[in-house]
Design brief:
mainly alpha; Receptor-associated Protein; 2 domains; 13 helices; flat
Length: 299
């Protein structure tokens, strides 16, 4: 067995070992079960390596890059992820090393030119550095989308309950007793807990606005807070806000539908059109070849 094959087998063994340890790490103690359930799957699988680097190196990087750390902290808050900034830096270091190992295995196992070999490891390492940032940004976007999907119905239900004679707090409790336990209902549950702990309603609403950090929801909270302070009808305010959010929701759906053809250009150009050209041109080429035209042209 040559040296190159031994290196490849060693890298594969290391990858399998990391996977086994990651699966083992997915079985936390009962005291950590609740926190582990909220962690993204990637952090549950490879948490042993991520948190190892986050303990020291991640904390140092957090102080070295304050602007980037603020952006990461904002994304974590928007995504409601039970992670710290140093954990993301630890994930970047772990993914950089893992990407370098995978890139090295690919470089050694594939017969590619030396110029391409020099690019494989840096490219895989760069993808590894960017992956945790894209991961938390995607989690934040999905959370905001889920909130916007449930918010108009929640506002309608609260306003209908208040029309039936309930106050705002009782209407929120009725909302929590109906439907599935989605992100928005969990945020309303935290809102009620803060009121029970002594915060006034306006402060609890502002805290909820900071946690969710969605523009449309901030407008809704501002309108509700103003209605509570001025003594105007909250029911009418919520009805108007619900209608406005539905219009925003439909406008976003139309924008996404309009962008779909543009997004389809690249996959169609890479996969669909070449296949069509092959299916059309190959039979024509074979017929021309069998007819002997090519041999006559060659003469």
């Amino acid at each position: 067995m040559d040296t190159q094959s031994m290196i490849v087998y060693g890298l594969v063994f290391g990858a399998v070992l990391c996977l086994v340890l990651g699966i083992k790490n997915m079985l936390p103690d009962k005291s950590e079960q609740e926190l582990s359930d909220r962690l993204p799957a990637f952090f549950r699988i490879f948490g042993f390596g991520i948190f190892f680097f986050a303990a020291e190196a991640g904390r140092i990087m957090e102080g070295m890059f304050p602007d980037n750390s603020k952006r990461i902290e904002e994304s974590l808050r928007r995504g409601d992820l039970p992670l710290e900034v140093k954990d993301i830096y630890g994930a970047q270091i772990f993914c950089f090393l893992a990407g370098g190992i995978v890139g090295g295995a690919v470089m050694l196992s594939l017969p590619v030119p030396p110029a391409v070999q020099l690019l494989i490891v840096p490219v895989f390492g760069t993808v590894g550095v960017l992956f945790p940032l894209m991961y938390i940004d995607k989690a934040a976007e999905e959370r905001e989308s889920e909130i916007m999907r449930h918010l108009p119905f929640a506002i309608d239900l609260i306003s209908s309950s208040m029309k039936a004679g309930l106050d705002f707090g009782a209407a929120v409790r009725y909302l929590l007793s109906t439907g599935e336990n989605d992100v928005l209902r969990r945020e309303f549950a935290v809102f009620l807990q803060e009121i029970e702990l002594g915060k006034n309603r306006s402060e609890a609403l502002r805290d909820m606005e900071k946690r969710i950090n969605v523009t449309e929801f901030s407008r809704f909270i501002s309108a509700i807070a103003y209605g509570m302070e001025s003594g105007s009808s909250i029911i009418d305010v919520m009805r108007i806000q619900a209608e406005e959010m539905r219009r925003v929701k439909f406008a976003r759906a139309e924008q996404q539908a309009a962008r779909a053809p543009v997004k389809m250009i690249i996959p169609m150009g890479l996969f669909v059109f070449p296949s069509m050209f092959i299916m059309i041109l190959v039979p024509i080429f074979l017929r021309i070849k069998d007819s002997g035209v090519l041999s006559m042209i060659g003469k």
